[in-house]
Amino acid sequence: MKKSLLTSVLISILVSCSSTPELETGEIKTLAILGQAFKQSNKPKRFVDSRSLLTRKQIDEAKVPVLFVELPSGQNGTLIPYPGQGIGQTWLGADGATITLDRGVLKASRGMGDDLMGSSSSMPSWSKVNKKILTYSRELAHITGNNKISRSVFNCDIEKTSSEEQIVIWDINFKVAKFVEQCSIGSFTFKNTYQVDARGIVRRSSQYHSDTLGFVKIERLDR
Length: 223
Prior knowledge:
The chain is an alpha+beta fold. It has a single domain (3-220), classed as YmcC-like (YmcC-like fold, Beta Barrel). The chain contains three helices and twelve strands; from the N terminus they run H-H-H-E-E-E-E-E-E-E-E-E-E-E-E. The protein is globular. Mean pLDDT is 83; it is low at 1-28 and 40-45.
């Protein structure tokens, strides 16, 4: 996304937040942090590590959901919910990139390269997955270099491999259950992992995005 367009988006969100008295000032604070990250991200060949930019204190004081996404290259960023409603929940990053999650499962992305244009799945809810392996299908639609959509339908299965684990995210301990999902089409396979808390929030996951990016790490930072 071009800088001017992103700037307009951030300004419009800021105006919306500041003109709505019932909203916490956390949205404005968090967007200010995102704006700072965006300015730094314009520096060529330099990644801004969000771990050094956003502290646990800032996350808690913002009082808004915050997502952390990291690519295999080490490039990472924090995202906040994008205004408006659609299928799943869309999150906006400082550079204008977005990802859409449905119950914590990656559904779509924009601005990340070889974008996931959409996905559909008959994956059961977390509460219905146990030690028994459940099978279903998943369709992934990617945009190709010639701006055409390539669709692939995978055969998948998922199981709960652990009922209670302790993980640390941004200095906070979370109790989670671990789920492992394996999908295949022909000879190609991938494995996703999800660590889900008692409220059904996916606190940490490693999910396949595309052949270009590989797997992305996603963490939910707010308590």
